[in-house]
Design a protein that fits this description.
heterodimer; A: about 400 residues; alpha+beta; Beta-Lactamase; five-stranded antiparallel sheet; B: about 425 residues; twelve-stranded mixed sheet; about 25% helix; GDP-D-glucose phosphorylase 1 (chain B); guanyl-nucleotide exchange factor activity (chain B); guanine-nucleotide releasing factor (chain B); GDP-D-glucose phosphorylase activity (chain B); transferase (chain B)
Chain lengths: ~400, ~425
């Protein structure tokens, strides 16, 4: 990951291209400490940090834009909390945990960490995640009791659906537990209220000025997991971290269109994402593309097999390149073929990376995608569990 | 001598039932004859916990090599064609329908009453595996600062290499075997050095969904040649979600001298001990290895799960095989032919019959795993052996028992670590 990027345009764009041109100004007006991350960019980096966050953490904007928020973790950060956050990202849910974060000067401090996905109400896809950090104020406590480590049990579903009365009560008690020193070491009512208020403010800011586009976002997913747009949103999340050039095509849809295209593919070919999604990948072919190679590819698809070959392909600007192309069926958890992956390697850019040959890199991409697609159905939100705290 | 009949899983294409001596070499095997004159890919890991880790090891090397072997047709079946699902319920057991894993119809007799058995070169072992099944050597590359990878490197003649090989009957994508010091032909028994190697591999993958596991003899290891298994599954194991209760030790902050924290599993069908933290990976390996050695010497079969990039180790003493041999397991469970090894115990259950898969429920999975667990009394006994052997001293909570009598809101404050699990997936990791 780059350490400092003076050009913050891709991060501005991540927000202004989805919401409105004035979304950044609306977000800057908020006084809360929060970050916004974009899961569709490789590495799931920070694309926005509020002024309040910057003052609290001691970092400057350019030092953190483009980096993954794990940079704020350190030795005292509880691994269980990190695990919960990671699971919440993977399953696209909200989460609230006690967390130890580190400032730039290395000092640790406790925050109530509240993270939510930003869902497009219409189709349930996830555009961003926002993470609010409410500093926890130490208050002298009145109860005795042993609590050797400050651990807060996160309650993802509580936050998402609104707390069930009993669960809320238990949650309160856990929150109000005191440490051995007699001071509260955990988030209390005040912090949680601040987090929820901040959450509402952020969503309002994202929705403001959207009358023109009609886009409405919220922290609740309204769409079921079976609709295709929600599926491709899950794909975005799992595959966003794979920074090689590839596309996924859906053989069950007419025309076998591309349903996912990596950033690397877009930069290699010069197309934008919306120019590519929904189209069959034959737009890469041109006058010099050997028809035998194309037949080979079609045969493999019919036989549900993989194949590797070399063919001439064309970029958007008309220039051509030799594509060391590898196509392979990719199955999901039902065991049936869900997609075909096409890995594109520009022969001219061949070169070893980390001591690994380009052919191996292609296989690596296929492997990573196969793993991601196979576990996709584990992450789509299952039936919502009724509160079973006992 | 207690034995059971089982159909063994074929983990290598060279593991043919009833095969005679290898047909002389020139086969490019992993024996002394071939290995030292061959070139294999080599991954040099860094044991420095501060050296930067990325996904290079896992996705670009391990998965890449694995996919390439798939292309070459070295696996007995395409594991991605096996249906898998998460069983509804708070535990979230994962069930897989795998009809291909046990295609061999002829069961073999396995001795299950001895955890330690001497290495027998006549039986199948990993020196008989062809080199095409090896993905890479896995060595300590501390001489160079960061981790590195070479696609072809000569095998160091002065010592036996550690190799990572494919499991030709995979349970998931990326299922491999880590074989420490293959030429030294160790029997299946844990020692500190080999456990530490496994922890380094987990750390190198730097992905919490890549776990390593170990089955002792008597706990469903089929090959008596030291090996660990590893694979990548992009979802949390039920055992990783289970609550734990810390066992307070006589030491600062209730942990051991070298900082290792010991807990036990709560609200999970199989009783087990969890080891975490430690001042260094070496310290964690030392405590766990000593615990395993104690079990080995007391002839108690066990399984080990290495999780959270090598930071969290679960130890499960078990007794299923013995029960089976003594005829104490219900026919219903025997008919499922599930061998509860480390992955099953962790909550990833491979089923061979479609009916079992369709009808799999949290209750049936729990019932199966509960058979594997030691009883509470036996577990406490075994725990005492382990503590004795590892020099850990548990502090019994007399103090806490007094406070329990007082009125507390919800009554949970005094038992600090055991709290109700709120909802599905609500982690309480200590």
């Amino acid at each position: 990951m780059d350490t400092s990027r003076s050009d913050s345009d891709p991060f501005r764009l991540s927000l202004t291209s989805r919401y409105s041109d004035w979304v950044l100004e609306a977000l800057e007006e908020l006084s809360d400490c929060f970050l916004i991350t974009d899961p569709a960019i490789s590495g799931h980096p920070i694309v926005f940090a509020s002024q309040s966050f910057l003052s609290m953490s001691g970092y400057s904007k350019s030092e953190i834009l483009g980096r993954n928020p794990r940079l704020f973790q350190g030795p005292e950060t509880d691994r269980g909390s990190v695990s919960q956050i990671r699971e919440a990202v993977r399953t696209r849910q909200s989460v609230q945990v006690n967390l130890v974060n580190y400032r730039k000067d290395g000092t640790p401090h406790q925050v109530l960490f509240h993270m939510s996905p930003v869902f497009v109400e219409e189709d349930g896809s996830v555009l961003h995640f926002f993470a609010i950090q409410v500093p926890i104020v130490r208050r002298p406590g009145t109860q005795h009791g042993a609590c050797s480590k400050g651990l807060l049990r996160g309650c993802r579903d509580e936050v998402r659906k609104g707390c069930d009365a009993h669960a809320q009560k238990v949650f309160d008690n856990v929150c109000n537990r005191v440490s051995e020193e007699g001071e509260t070491c955990m988030a209390g009512e005040l912090e949680r209220e601040r987090a929820l208020n901040a959450s509402n403010s952020i969503i309002s800011a994202l929705n403001r000025y959207n009358n023109f586009t009609g886009l409405v976002v919220s922290t609740k997913q309204c769409c079921g997991p079976r609709t295709i747009p929600a599926f491709s949103s899950c794909l975005n999340l799992s595959l966003g971290g794979i920074n090689k050039s590839f596309v996924l095509s859906d053989p069950h849809l007419p025309g076998m269109p591309i349903v996912y295209a990596s950033d690397a593919f877009l930069s290699l070919t010069g197309y934008s994402r919306c120019e590519v999604l929904g189209r069959n990948s034959k737009f890469l072919n041109g006058p010099g593309t050997c028809s035998k190679a194309l037949q080979e590819i079609n045969k493999s698809i019919s036989a549900e097999k993989s194949c590797t070959l070399r063919l001439l392909n064309y970029r958007k600007d008309g220039s051509s390149f030799w594509n060391l192309f590898h196509i392979s069926p990719v199955r999901n958890a039902t065991g049936k073929i869900a997609y075909y992956i096409g890995v594109i390697l520009d022969e001219a850019s061949k070169g070893e990376l980390n001591g690994i040959s380009p052919e191996m890199l292609q296989f690596g991409t296929v492997g990573a995608v196969k793993v991601a697609v196979r576990s996709l159905s584990f992450s789509s939100s299952g039936p919502s569990w009724s509160s079973n705290s006992r | 001598m207690l034995t059971i009949k089982r159909v063994p899983t074929v983990v290598s294409n060279y593991q043919e039932e009833g095969s005679t001596e290898p047909i002389g070499c020139g086969r490019n095997c992993l024996g002394k004859c071939c290995l030292h004159v061959s070139k294999l890919p080599l991954y040099g890991f860094s044991s420095n916990p501060n050296s930067p880790k990325s996904d290079v090891f896992l996705s670009q090397i391990l998965l890449a090599q694995w996919e390439e072997r798939m292309e070459r047709g070295l696996f007995r079946y395409d594991v991605t064609a096996c249906e898998t699902k998460v069983i509804p319920g708070p535990q979230g057991f994962i069930a897989q329908l795998n009809e291909g894993r046990h295609l061999k119809k002829r069961p073999t007799e396995f001795r299950v009453d001895r955890v330690l058995q001497p290495f027998d070169p006549a039986k199948f072992n990993f020196t008989k595996v062809g080199q095409e099944e090896v993905l890479f050597q896995f060595e300590n590359g501390d001489a160079v600062n960061n981790s590195y990878f070479l696609e072809r490197a000569a095998v160091d003649p002065t010592k036996a290499p550690n190799v990572v090989a494919i499991n030709v009957s995979p349970i998931e994508y990326g299922h491999v075997l880590l074989i420490p010091r293959v030429l030294d032909c160790y029997p299946q028994r844990i020692d500190q050095e080999s456990l530490l190697l496994a922890l380094y591999m987990a750390a190198e993958a730097s992905n919490p969904y890549f776990r390593l596991g170990y089955n002792s003899l008597g706990a469903f290891a089929t090959i008596n040649h030291l090996h660990f298994q590893a694979y990548y599954l992009n979802v949390q194991f039920p055992v990783e979600k289970a609550m734990t209760e810390m066992i307070t030790l006589a030491g600062q902050s209730g942990v051991s001298e070298n900082g290792v924290k010991v807990s036990k599993l709560v609200n999970y069908p199989v009783r087990g001990i969890v080891f975490t933290e430690g001042k260094s990976m070496n310290d964690l390996a030392e405590v766990v290895a000593n615990a395993c050695i104690c079990l080995q010497e007391n002839n108690i079969p066990f399984n080990v799960l290495i999780s959270d990039c090598g930071r969290r180790i679960y130890l499960f003493p078990q007794c299923y095989a013995e029960k089976q041999a003594l005829g104490e397991v219900s026919q219903e469970l025997l008919d499922t032919q599930v061998n509860p090894a480390v992955w099953e115990i962790s909550g990833h259950i491979v089923l061979k019959r479609r009916t079992d898969y369709e009808e799999a429920s949290e209750a049936s999975a729990w019932r199966l795993l509960a058979e594997v667990s030691l009883s509470e009394e036996r577990f406490e006994e075994v725990k005492a052996y382990i503590f004795d052997a590892t020099g850990l001293v548990e502090i019994k909570d007399e103090v806490k028992k007094d406070e329990e009598k007082e009125e507390q809101f919800e009554g949970n404050v005094v038992e600090p670590m055991v709290t109700p699990c709120f909802q599905e997936g609500c982690l309480v990791l200590q």
